[in-house]
Write a structure and sequence with these properties.
2 copies of one chain form a homodimer. With 133 residues, chain A is mainly α. Chain A has 2 domains: 1-75, Multidrug-efflux Transporter Regulator, Chain: A, Domain 2; 81-133. Chain A is 67% helix and 3% strand. Chain A has helices spanning 8-15, 19-27, 45-59, 64-75, 81-118, 125-131; strands spanning 36-37, 40-41. Chain A has a two-stranded antiparallel sheet with strand order 1-2. The interface between A and B is large, with 44 and 44 residues. Chain B binds a DNA duplex (30 and 30 nucleotides) through residues 7-9, 18-21, 23-24, 28, 38-41, 58, 63-65.
DNA sequence: ATGCCATCTGTAGCGACTACAGACTCAAGC
DNA sequence: GCTTGAGTCTGTAGTCGCTACAGATGGCAT
């Protein structure tokens, strides 16, 4: 069986999640408090799965609260697919809004850098842009 | 003259910057501590300009440390244009990297939502994607 | 016995604000 | 003169998602 007990360091290695972060997730109730072998936390295969889930959801930009919700929905079987979809769709809107924001920044910055390189402006084009809109 | 003394509320209104944030900027030394009229902070036209500068730089995504640097360079005259350009160019790289990150998220999310809408998968496609990569 | 690494708990720090509580100042209305 | 209300003051603590310690144990190899 692949389900032998591992320590926190091994869990960290398998999931790519920092040890301090794992303990943090436990503290805030995102990961369950595992049994102890002596004083050391003892994890099993389920924990590797759950933590991997958390990490991938985080990589998609879900907040920890959203991850918590996703975990709940994942546990509640397939009836919840619509709810998962809605959560994802609303998060997708967030992501798109942030992309739009960043693209606006990008345009302005790129324009200023170009103006700087052109060197027409008597002062500094970016400073100029920041001082008066 | 447009340089009459205004209170913090008016400064807030003119710059669109939260009152608490203005005091925060003063605490961390980004804005100078203004003179007082009685106990109340008394600002002038320069402060409106400086705070506007800060706010616009923040809108372009510069960190407060970068803003501090930009303020220093802005004060030091036009010799510093090259330095400003470098700061902006390096920040532009950051912004582009973040856009790339978000676009990756967007692709995955949009794909999952689509898969959900298609409804082929027996389980939930997003949950599925999160559980196994 | 001695190293040495891993793990433990608990606390504080980051960035950039934001949100109070509880005191005060000031001008206007009655 | 007295009250009311809006504005301002200081100081502290909370947010999010970690990250970084300090200082104490645990367990194994030499």
């Amino acid at each position: 069986m692949a389900d032998q007990a591992i320590q926190i360091g091994e869990l960290s290695r398998r999931t790519g999640c920092n040890i301090e972060t794992i303990r943090y997730y436990e503290r805030i109730g995102l990961m369950p408090a595992p049994p102890r072998r002596g004083r050391y936390r003892s994890y099993g295969g389920e924990d590797v799965g759950r933590l991997g889930f958390v990490r991938r959801a985080r990589e998609l930009g879900f907040t920890l609260d959203e991850v918590r919700a996703l975990l709940g929905l994942a546990a509640s079987g397939q009836a919840s697919c619509a709810e998962v979809r809605d959560l994802a769709a609303s998060h997708l809107q967030d992501v798109r809004a942030r992309i739009a924001d960043l693209k606006r920044m990008e345009r302005v910055l790129a324009g200023s850098v170009r103006a700087c390189d052109a060197g027409q402006d008597p002062g500094c084009p970016l400073i100029h842009a920041l001082y008066a809109v």
